[in-house]
Predict the 3D structure of the following.
Amino acid sequence: MELPSADAATERRRPTTDGHAHFLPMARRRFPEDSRRRSIDEAAPMPSSYRLPVAAALVALAFAGMHLGFEYVDGGVRSHHVLNRADLPDISNWFGLIILPALGWAFGVRLRNRPGARRSIWVGLVASLAYGAALATSFELGATDITQAIFFGLLPLAIVAPIYRAECMLGFVAGMSFTFGAILPCFFAVLFACLSAALRLGFLAIRKRLRRNRDA
């Protein structure tokens, strides 16, 4: 008959416990780690996928704020009548604080999604900014013929150029905002953008169908 060893006697004297006793030390070690991890995650920098849209929206907001600040100290923020007619409702330039950042966000999203076409995107922004500024300047100078020529020149541009893209809309609205505010140029930008998209997409669909019939 073998006598029980000292280790076996010690094991029998050790009180029995359930899994909770083993869980408590682990929990004490785990919870501080979780809290530290949460604090690190909360202090983590913004994901790179949002940096360009946010930066573009903030720049557009600063541009709108500069414009409205200039108007505010120069006699008050202006309003513009629809179609420049006094019998139609007027719209305040304060809407620029919403419209320009929204267009800036769309521009930033396009920059993020098309990294290989950033040069052409910037060219589109600068060209549309110059086009809108030329239209606004000719209106301010009272050159009605030039203003009409530039305005109706948007019709052929809607056919030959993709003016429905975010950079074109942002540049056009920003270029005209100091004269007309943001909401009226945005209305015309959306109108011509829809026309451009319909014409170009329709043309592409017709060309694709003709090519399919020719191949058949």
Q: What stands out?
A: The two ends are 97 Å apart (CA to CA). Residues 19-24, 39-44 have pLDDT under 50 and may be disordered.
